[in-house]
Amino acid sequence: MRPIGVAGAGTMGAGIAALAAGAGIPTLLYDPDPAALDRAPEGPERTGELEALAPCGLVIEAAPEDLEVKRALFARLAAIAGEDCVLATNTSSLSVTALAAGLPHPERVVGMHFFNPPQKMRLLEVVAGDASGEAALAAARAAGEAMGKHVIDAADGPGFLVNRCNRPFSLEALRIVQERLATPEQVDRICRMAGGFRMGPFELMDLVGLDVGFAVARSFHEQSFGEPRWRPSPLVARLVAAGRLGRKSGRGWYEYPPGRPADPEPPAGVADADALRAAGVDGIHLVPPAGRLVEVTTDEAERLVTAQGVHAERVGGPVLGRIVAQLINEACFALGEGVGSAADIDAGMVLGLNHPRGPLEWADLIGPAAVLDQLDGLRRDYGEERYRAAPALRRAVSARTTLAA
Ligand SMILES: NC(=O)c1ccc[n+]([C@@H]2O[C@H](COP(=O)([O-])OP(=O)(O)OC[C@H]3O[C@@H](n4cnc5c(N)ncnc54)[C@H](O)[C@@H]3O)[C@@H](O)[C@H]2O)c1
């Protein structure tokens, strides 16, 4: 078996190399910084010389996120390794096509996008650049599977599949807060207790770092030449300008410590959606499947929900339904643009980001027609292109078909 090489022994590279070695694959780990090699876990053979990767059949680079650094690294690797050696990049945001440009045999360059931490997250996106050859893509898939990953195929483009499809989770939440329909605490609580997400969007932004998230948001907007769905939020720009970068700076949307207040503890049950609907009361915003919290906009709705022993969250307008509708819409755009298959989109969001279910499965649960109605309503109310419905969603509704695989 030819060894796998990993170039870059930081957060991602060290984890990927440990994973490959743990799967019984001979693995060589290179980093120009001896301290990074010292910190890397046991398992792979550590090398301070890139030339040591010459016998590899696949090299995965996890060097810093800089196009010129990665291009220079690939150029050196192309000269050192055999011309059939697959060169894979773990980049999150650079174009695989751009990284391959100018290299001899660009057909051997592919993306292998692991999620952090690589030993724990089950997903791997294999990304095809414009020049990527079928043999290189198949080799990347096989290596990922040998490392125990669920492999999905993604096209090259902003955020590939998973990070692109997750854009609305923060962007729509930010719009809702900007419009003062709910506070960040409320949006987070609604996403966790009604939506089943492990973390709300604002907690997640604080964890990732608002400066990092803002740079990603700008990059999406620039790479798409101003797609309105991907317009960065002025609220985040203001927090970044104030130095409120999230956990790492001690303050972002929340303060650290003491952190956010604990959730209200409702009785264990979930809302009885049928009973709430049967009551025929306005101001109840339910998103299937019902959770331990229901959004309400009137006193009467609040009384009815509270009487069920479920937490009623008083908001100025739909929160979860709007975020989920935009997640579904983005997934439908991705589907229509050939970014990934329906099965890969749903698997990607669950395994890569711990979403409670895939967006297309969620669309079928809510009903594609109801999702389309909500989007058309938002488009009408706001007059904004960001709410235009994806053609794939409109077609599914006209043809009365489901969306999930
Ligand atoms: N951190 C994440 O959550 C995450 C998730 C998915 C993908 N990625 C991507 O993985 C890549 C690495 O990210 P990271 O978080 O591990 O960064 P990191 O800063 O932790 O590690 C980068 C490592 O690369 C080394 N390095 C510097 N120059 C090099 C060169 N010329 N050749 C080889 N190695 C070199 C550094 O010494 C360092 O050890 C980036 O492209 C990033 O976008 C990161």
Structure in words:
It is a single chain. By secondary structure, this protein is α/β, with parallel strands linked by helices. The protein is 45% helix and 12% strand. Strands 3-2-1-4-5-6-7-8 form an 8-stranded mixed β-sheet, sandwiched between helices. It has a 3-stranded mixed β-sheet with strand order 9-10-11, sandwiched between helices. A hairpin with an 8-residue loop joins strand 6 and strand 7. The longest helix is centred in the C-terminal third of the chain and has 17 residues, at 320-336. The two termini are 36 Å apart. The structure holds nicotinamide-adenine-dinucleotide. Nicotinamide-adenine-dinucleotide binds at residues 7-13, 31-33, 36, 62-65, 69, 73, 90-92, 114, 116.
Topology:
Blueprint (H helix, E strand, L loop, with lengths): L3 E4 L3 H12 L4 E4 L3 H6 L5 E3 L10 E4 L5 H14 L5 E4 L6 H5 L8 E6 L8 E6 L5 H13 L3 E6 L6 H4 L1 H12 L5 H10 L7 H8 L1 H14 L10 H8 L31 H6 L5 E2 L7 E4 L2 H9 L3 E4 L5 H17 L5 H12 L5 H8 L1 H15 L8 H8 L7
Parallel strand pairs: 1-2, 1-4, 2-3, 4-5, 5-6, 7-8, 10-11
Antiparallel strand pairs: 6-7, 9-10
Helix pairs in contact: 7-14, 14-16, 14-17, 16-17
This protein binds nicotinamide-adenine-dinucleotide.
